Amino acid sequence: MNRQLIQIEGFVILALGTYLYFSQGYSWVVFLLLLFAPDVFMLGYAFNKKIGAYLYNAAHTFITPLLLVAAGLAFSTGFLIMIGLIWLVHIGMDRMFGYGLKYETDFKDTHIQRL
User: What digits encode the pLDDT tens for the residues 67-85?
Assistant: First the structure.
């Protein structure tokens, strides 16, 4: 049941973030180019599992993209809002598909399920 709730939450974030992004008239091209950018942090696994999990999780929590959106709203900076929304959509998409935050034991061990 917890896994399903996280996946539903992910879908809601994905749908809402996508709606907000395109309702502002932001670019499809930029959206598609940056949608998978947070997965670059997976390269930390080239060093070891601990560093990999830390970097991956840092890029897959809602804190930074929400701060970007908040800063963009506070300072009327569309670029920050755009990047923050794409990042939120990415995280929502990951969670919807069952990809969660990583444990240090293995890349496949997540807070949602074992992949």
Answer: 999 999 999 999 999 999 9
